Amino acid sequence: MNLDNIRGMKFLDSHIHMTSRTTDDYEAMSKAGVVAIIEPSFWLGQPRTEVGSFKDYFSSLVGWERFRASQFGIHHYCTIGLNSKEANNEALAEQVMEILPMYVCKEGVVGVGEIGYDDQTPAEDKYFRAQLELAKEVNLPVQIHTPHRDKRAGTSRSMDVVEEHGIPPHMVVIDHNNEETVKEVLDRGFWAAFTIYPKTKMGKERMVEVLKKYGPERIIVDSSADWGVSDPLSVPKTASLMLSHGIPKEHVEQVCYQNPLEVYKQSGQIDENDWLNPQGVDQRELYNGNSVLRGQEPMVNK
Ligand SMILES: [Zn+2]
C-alpha cells in the first residue's frame, strides 16, 4: 500500500501489543509516522498459571518494552489490568488483583485495561467491577475490551456497569466497536475505538464509511496488533485510505492521533511534549545491561 499521502502526519496507536511484535515492526511504524503507542495488558494465548507470570509481564510493559520502543524513536505507554479471559481463573485472579495497585501507579501507565467481558461469566463480571473501582480510586482512564461473541449486548452491558460504578464516560474507551455498536456508544458519551484488522472483522474500508457517517468526534482508530493475524500499520494505513476517500485531514488526525491523546492525557502520564521535543535515539543505550542490537551498527541521532 502506498502511504505517500500521509507523509509528515503523526499517529498514536492506542491499542497495540508490542511484546509479541518484532523490531522490524517498530521500524516500519516509526517510518509511517507512529510517534507513540499504548500497550494494553492482555492474555498471552497460553493461560498463565502463576501470579509471578503476571508480575513479570506487567514489569516488562513498564520496563523493557518501553525501552525497546524508545530505541526506535517511539514513545511507549501502557494500561494495566486483569484481562477478561483470565478473570475466569478465580484463584489466580484474586492474587492478580492484589498486585494491580502497585503497577497502576507506575510511570507511563495511562489507564486500567484492557478489562471487560469475554464470555460474560459471573467471574468476569466480578473482576471487571473490582477493576472499575480501582480505576476510580486512582483516577485513571479505563480501556474496555468488548466481547467478540454477543457483541451488541456485551457492549451495552459494559457501559451499564461503568455507569453503575459512577465513572464518567469521558474517562472510558469502549474498544472493538463495529457498525452495530458505535451509535449507542457515542450517544451515551463514551469514546468509541475501532480495531482495524486485515481481512476480517472491522476493516479499513468499513472504517472509512463509519467516519463518513458519524464524523470524528470521540472516535478512535487502533490496530490491536498482537501475536494473531493483525497489522501494526493499521492506523497509518487506515489514515491513508481515509484521505484518499476525501475525508478532511483534520478529521483523520483527530481519530488517529488527537482523540486517543485527549482521553489518555487525563492520566497525567502522557503529553504531546514527550515527542514534540524529541530526545533522539541512541541505540548504544542499555536496559539492565541489555541492548536491542545483535552486533549491528547502533543508530545514534541525539
Ligand atoms: Zn488487545
From TrEMBL:
Keywords: Hydrolase, Metal-binding
Lineage: superkingdom: Bacteria
UniProt xrefs under SUPFAM superfamilies: Metallo-dependent hydrolases
Pfam family, one: TatD_DNase
Gene Ontology MF term list: hydrolase activity, acting on ester bonds; metal ion binding
Family in the record: Belongs to the metallo-dependent hydrolases superfamily.
Full protein name: TatD family hydrolase
Organism whose genome encodes this protein: Rapidithrix thailandica
